[in-house]
């Protein structure tokens, strides 16, 4: 793989850009691999990358039903933060955030990481108490956050109305090293690096069954034939329950669409990420100038990726009080992404009842920010059978009542 650089761009400019190689190969699948990962989204590709980088395991296939990064990786609002209350959550999200800081250099691919900072608004006295508590917990966890008053919030976001009659701003939890990244570029960068290590990324190939022999996995049935493997990683977000059923076990989660929309592009007006958890809305401005707005999940389980008008109405109606300028913008597009949600709103990174099968799921609405940390820990779990980052996120915690409750502690499950 040729190294990307300013000199390479200049050289190709003189060649009319005819010398660029494909970023990743599209090979025919081999009959078997040491590891097969189902799902070529951010988490699946990151898992494959760290298997190769950290453990030298490169006889790997990443199988994708659709196209690379075409699921939730390409349908989120790109927020990166690690200010979670529970210790296991803070550890894996802070690992991810720290890896994001140097990911462009590690992958030799510009993921457009922007450490612009994240504010979680406190708009009730209950939220003030909760975020002060979280700030103290983050200090013990080594996560750089602090609680700021409403005047500092206003200084950071001048366009904000902090004196709203229904949703006044009382302060906020500020993480200055949080931010955003380009979601597609994260998937493309990992895919390019995996392909360069000799891994096979097999797109447009659906897994239709999981074959077992003697209680252990032996491979997967696909629309392009049987592919054998010694270890199988299932990283398919909202469809985790479907693949788990093929393998013969059930997962304690449900799948629902998460709603989001963007406005027409405007000139730069906000250079931080703002999360208004009282109204379940969050806002940032993209590099193209669009105001990126996230909302809540649908109230019923389904697999549609269409936008939900009542969610858009509820979210925008509440946000307009805090951000009056939104009322003058037109919506450009809206969509839903299928997320898998557990009862405690924390992920599952675990061995399964089938020997050799590992599951990475349950990220709910917090998947994008976790991609590097998830891949790092899941790769270690698959390679060594144990990882400090994933130890608390096993499936057995639901049977044992050992929950990692972020549904209330985080203020919102994003």
Description of the structure:
Helix content is 30%, strand content 25%. With 414 residues, the protein is α/β, with parallel strands linked by helices. It is built from eleven helices and 18 strands. The C terminus is likely disordered. It is globular and about 65 Å long.
- Per the principal axes of the C-alpha atoms, what is the gross shape? globular
**Helical residues, percent:** 25-40%
The value of Rg in angstroms is 21 Å
Mean pLDDT: 93
**N-end to C-end Cα span:** 36 Å
Order of helices and strands: HEHEEHHEHEHEEHEEEEHEEEEHEEEHH
Q: Name the poorly predicted regions.
A: 410-414
Number of helices: 11
Binned strand content: 25-35%
Let me know the largest β-sheet: 8 strands, mixed
Structural class of the helices, strands and pairings?
Answer: alpha/beta
Number of strands: 18
């Amino acid at each position: 793989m040729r190294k990307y650089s300013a000199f390479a761009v200049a050289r190709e400019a003189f060649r009319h850009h005819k010398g660029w190689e494909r970023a990743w190969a599209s090979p025919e699948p081999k009959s078997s691999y040491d590891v097969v990962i189902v799902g070529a989204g951010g988490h699946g590709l990151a898992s494959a990358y760290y298997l190769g980088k950290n453990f030298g395991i490169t006889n790997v296939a990443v199988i994708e039903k659709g196209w690379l990064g075409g699921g939730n990786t390409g349908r989120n609002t790109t927020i990166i933060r690690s200010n979670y209350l529970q210790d296991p959550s803070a550890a894996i999200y802070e690992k991810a955030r720290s890896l994001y800081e140097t990911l462009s250099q590690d992958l030799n691919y510009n993921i457009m990481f922007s450490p612009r900072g994240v504010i979680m608004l406190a708009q009730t006295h209950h939220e003030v108490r909760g975020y002060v508590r979280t700030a103290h917990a983050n200090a013990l966890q080594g996560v750089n956050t602090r609680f700021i008053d409403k005047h500092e919030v206003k200084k950071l976001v001048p366009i904000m109305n902090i004196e709203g009659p229904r949703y006044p701003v009382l302060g906020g939890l500020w993480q200055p090293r949080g931010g955003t990244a380009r979601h597609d570029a994260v998937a493309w960068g990992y895919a390019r690096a995996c392909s360069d290590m000799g891994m096979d990324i097999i797109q447009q190939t659906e897994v239709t069954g999981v074959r077992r022999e003697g209680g252990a996995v032996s491979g997967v049935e696909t629309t392009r034939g049987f592919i054998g493997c010694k270890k199988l990683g299932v990283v398919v977000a909202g469809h985790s329950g479907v693949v788990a059923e093929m393998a013969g076990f059930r997962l304690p989660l449900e799948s629902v669409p998460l709603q989001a929309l963007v406005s027409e592009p405007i000139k730069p007006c906000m250079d931080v990420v703002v999360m208004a958890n009282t109204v379940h809305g969050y806002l940032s401005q993209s590099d193209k100038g669009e105001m990126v707005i996230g909302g809540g999940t649908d109230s019923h389980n389904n697999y549609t990726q269409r936008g939900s008008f009542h969610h858009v109405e509820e979210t925008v109606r509440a946000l307009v009080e805090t951000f009056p300028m939104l009322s003058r913008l037109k919506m450009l597009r809206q969509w839903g992404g299928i997320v898998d949600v557990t009862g405690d709103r924390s992920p599952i990174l675990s061995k399964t009842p089938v020997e050799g099968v590992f599951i990475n799921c349950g990220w709910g609405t917090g998947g994008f920010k976790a991609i590097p940390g998830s891949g790092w820990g899941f790769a270690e779990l698959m390679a060594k059978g144990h990882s400090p980052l994933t130890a608390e996120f096993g499936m057995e915690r639901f049977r044992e009542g050992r929950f990692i409750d972020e549904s209330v502690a985080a203020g919102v499950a994003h």
